[in-house]
Design goal:
Elements: H1 3-15, H2 36-46, E1 50-54, H3 59-67, E2 72-73, E3 92-95, E4 99-101, E5 106-109, H4 118-122, E6 126-132, E7 136-137, H5 140-146, E8 154-156, E9 161-163, E10 169-171, E11 178-184
Parallel strand pairs: 1-11, 2-3, 3-6, 4-7, 6-11
Antiparallel strand pairs: 4-5, 5-8, 9-10
Amino acid sequence: MSAREEILARVRKAVAGAEDVEIPRDYRARRQPEGLVELFAERVDDYRAIVHVVASADLPAKIDECVAGRRMIVPDGFGREGGWDDLNTADGVITNCAVGIAETGTIVLDHGPGQGTRAQTLVPDYHLCVVRAGQIVAGVPEAVARLDPSRPLTWISGPSATSDIELNRVEGVHGPRTLEVIIST
């Protein structure tokens, strides 16, 4: 008997005859949408990202302002012409997202249209992400309900960062050093 089989046998023996307990799964599943944009912006800012909240009519001008002078990768389906293709020389990437989570300030990419490939979103030093107000949900359960688990998911909570044993923060190790988010209302 392998160690795994032995452990599982012990667990089965320990729970044999125990009553089944129903675990409620409806907790915190739906919350009111009031203030989600503001909470999301606050939480994204807490992660040291640059955050802009703009009216949808002002979105194109804000994008132009953010990417001025940069060689940007623009993924297929983003809806903007003139992207840079070379990962080795691009300054950054601009993407949409699948969902934004207000409670955690997390952006989720499922790499669908306008979201680029994982390499396109992790290699450049700068990531500009456009999040539309309708894509923001209150918490993780609502986000998971909107996502397709068969797609490749990238969960982003701020710029890439890590700390060494002395808690010295180092940014840009596993992905973009700078995350800029435009929330379109």
